[in-house]
Prior knowledge:
The structure holds two protein chains of two kinds.
Chain A: H1 3-14, E1 17-21, E2 23-24, E3 27-28, H2 31-43, E4 48-51, H3 56-66, E5 73-76, E6 79-82, H4 84-92, H5 95-102
Parallel strand pairs in A: 1-4
Antiparallel strand pairs in A: 1-5, 2-3, 5-6
Chain B: H1 5-15, E1 20-25, E2 32-38, H2 47-57, E3 68-74
Parallel strand pairs in B: 2-3
Antiparallel strand pairs in B: 1-2
Amino acid sequence: MSDIHEQIRQEVASNDVVLFMKGTPNAPMCGFSGQVVQILDYLGVPYKGVNVLADDEIRQGIKDFSNWPTIPQLYVKGEFVGGCDIIREMFQAGELGSHFTENGIPVRQSA
Amino acid sequence: MAMQAEEIERLIKAALPDAQIEIRDLAGDGDHYSATVISAAFKGKTRVQQHQIVYAALKEQMGGVLHALALQTSAPA
């Protein structure tokens, strides 16, 4: 496994919730990343934001790691959950909140 | 460099011959589309897997030439 993949694997293994995004949680630099930030903030889920714009190796490496061509990418307990569309769809269907609680991650709002 | 809706549809249809596809141009710039794809190939697959099937059909265009494709996938009811 390339060292960038190892670095990513470490990141998702050592943080319950990781959002690979463009920008930072306080300053998203892309509408899609911003939408997932809003959903996670609404649910009150603690997460680590990784700014792929700050590191081109991560920006490309994450796409190979998950076999997913776009950013943002949300990981829960090391598992790739989805990009913006899927996270929004799960949120609207009320599945995202239960996905977190099933993984032992506290959620503020029930959604 | 942008992508035409017909090109997206052709690539998806080539990979999923039974697919019912509806593509909407979100921004008129050939870069931001939404697509609804219904195919029996999605039956029993997670959303991530369904979208990965569509992305594979788009052969590397996704994320490069095609900046954003809002996907809505499902198996036939």
